[in-house]
Design brief:
The protein is α/β, with parallel strands linked by helices. It contains 8 helices and 10 strands. The protein has a 6-stranded mixed beta sheet with strand order 4-1-5-6-10-9, with helices on both faces. The protein has a two-stranded antiparallel sheet with strand order 2-3. It has a two-stranded parallel sheet with strand order 7-8. Helix 1 runs parallel beside helix 8. The longest helix is centred in the first third of the chain and has 13 residues, at about 30-40. The protein is globular.
């Protein structure tokens, strides 16, 4: 019997938004829904973060939050209510402490945090570029796709050149900004992606599941696309 596939899920360390002053981090559904797809496929999953330690989720993504924004997310609610699973984000390993060669795929979890903790983070950028270049699989969803604005191959070429990919759309930023009554993000992924030469950035309807595979690079548009992106990872790796 062959060894199970190994997936490295990377979520943001806690941060504070410079635009809103809110504590920010990862988005629960973008961790729990792909996690469920992977374990159901028989994969081993490690949840890590760039710097290691305890993680904090964006409050709107918590199904128990008073806002009720994610109240219907029963997968995340179950994950949170399970001591075994909740412990997986209470003391994550740092990327520098892992044997990255032992993983078959990496999956970058989105949320508000990555806009500050993944963008211009050399270790995260190198991780994605390395996996794709080595013929492995790198999946990136929602605001974590900001890393693809700068990630390069080991030879220095922008990773998304010649590729089709997706990420959080302007239409979705408009909805989010209107919901809270102010601009949330420090920049917009779609604006910056469309300014890059030689790449094909595509989006579908706001908040509809949408994931794209271009070779070893898999991207998901927003929080409703995590499971779809995970299924493309499984398609690429097999069971």
């Amino acid at each position: 019997m062959s060894a199970p596939k190994r997936i490295l899920m990377v979520a943001s360390n806690p941060a504070v938004s410079k635009r809103t002053g809110w504590p920010i981090g990862f988005w629960w559904a973008e961790l729990t829904h792909p996690y469920w797809e992977f374990v159901e496929a028989g994969y081993e999953v490690t949840i890590a973060s760039p710097d290691g330690g305890a993680l904090v989720a964006d409050s709107f993504s918590d199904p128990r939050d008073a806002s009720g924004y994610s109240a219907a997310d029963i997968l995340s609610r179950g994950f949170l209510e399970s001591p075994t699973h909740a412990a997986l984000v209470e003391n994550t390993p740092a990327l520098a402490d892992l044997d990255l060669d032992s993983f078959d795929a990496v999956f970058l979890v989105g949320g508000q945090g990555p806009m500050y903790t993944f963008r211009h983070n050399a270790s995260v950028e190198a991780l994605v570029g390395r996996f794709v270049t080595e013929g492995k699989v790198a999946a990136v969803v929602c605001h974590a796709t900001c890393v693809l604005l700068d990630a390069t191959t080991p030879s220095g070429e922008l990773l998304v050149v010649g590729r089709t990919w997706t990420g959080f759309a302007n239409s979705e930023e408009d909805v989010a900004d209107a919901f809270v009554g102010q601009r949330i993000q420090p920049f917009r992924i779609e604006d910056e992606a469309r300014a890059l030469p030689g790449t094909n950035f595509v989006v579908h309807a706001a908040f509809a599941p949408h994931a794209v595979r271009d070779g070893g690079l898999i991207t998901g548009q927003q929080q409703h696309s995590g499971a779809a992106a995970a299924r493309l990872v499984i398609e690429a790796l097999g069971r």
